[in-house]
Amino acid sequence: MLTGKQKRFLRSEAHHLNPIFQVGKAGVNENMIKQVFDALEARELMKISVLQNCEDDKNTVAHQLAEGTGADIVQIIGNTIILYKESKENKQIQLP
């Protein structure tokens, strides 16, 4: 689990990022979880936007993605989810 200080740091790091994935009407599926997992391994920190037509609640989507990928939820703001997962090979972010 991330501490408050680490979450604040990651929020500031994620501020300039654009969402890479969009969760739409189909919701979260195995294929999406695998793609998000691979993207997290490459980047460690990413934003995902939840579209208006998504039938699942944004909190449900965030928890499904976090559980499926083993990532931490940094923040859910508006319809945007910020996820962090420490990379095994491409470690770039040093947490405070």
From TrEMBL:
InterPro entries: RNA-binding_CRM (IPR001890), RNA-binding_domain (IPR051925), RNA-binding_YhbY (IPR017924), YhbY-like_sf (IPR035920). It holds the Pfam family CRS1_YhbY. PROSITE patterns: CRM. Coiled coil: none annotated. One of its GO terms (molecular function) is RNA binding. Keywords: RNA-binding. SUPFAM superfamilies: YhbY-like. Residues 1-96 form the CRM domain. NCBIfam families: RNA_bind_YhbY. This is CRM domain-containing protein.
